[in-house]
Amino acid sequence: MVNYLLDTNVISELRQSKRARNTSMLQWMSGKETDNFFISSITLEEIYDGILRVESRENKQATRLRKWFKHDVINAFRGKILSIDEYVALRTSEINIVRTYPENDAYIAATALVHAMPLVTRNVKDFEDIGGLSLVNPFAD
User: Fold this and answer.
1) How many domains does the chain fold into?
2) What positions does the domain PIN occupy (predicted)?
3) 25 and 9 in contact (C-beta within 8 Å)?
4) Has residue 55 been placed in a domain?
5) CATH number at residue 130
6) Could you tell me if residue 141 is inside a domain?
7) Taking 70 as the threshold, does the pLDDT of residue 141 lie above it?
8) Which residues pair with 37 in a beta bridge?
9) Residue 7: left if φ>0, alpha if ψ -120 to 50, beta else—which one?
């Protein structure tokens, strides 16, 4: 049984209305057990940061996003949110020795590597030269 680390863009796609969601991604996910999907604590930070930015402009939309965040992200992934521990921190440094990556991308990649999970992302090019990292692009046809 394979576990997967979902990148922030995959979680964001799940927020779309059912008709607007990417069909390739939905087909890929439908063949997997939801118990095998994990996220990084960095994904929580990225999503919450986005909600706070929306909140400063549009309170009604931010209220909807907060509800989605609490129910569909926090509650749905409870017990499956992987934190940055000493192993992830050290692996992040090793990744950045080869090339400096955006901080959040490096942490997410290191989390996938430490936990031996493929990283599921639309942004394959952002990660493709990280040695040993297995990537899955469920958005590709």
Assistant:
1) 1
2) 4-131
3) no
4) yes
5) 3.40.50.1010
6) no
7) no
8) 4
9) beta
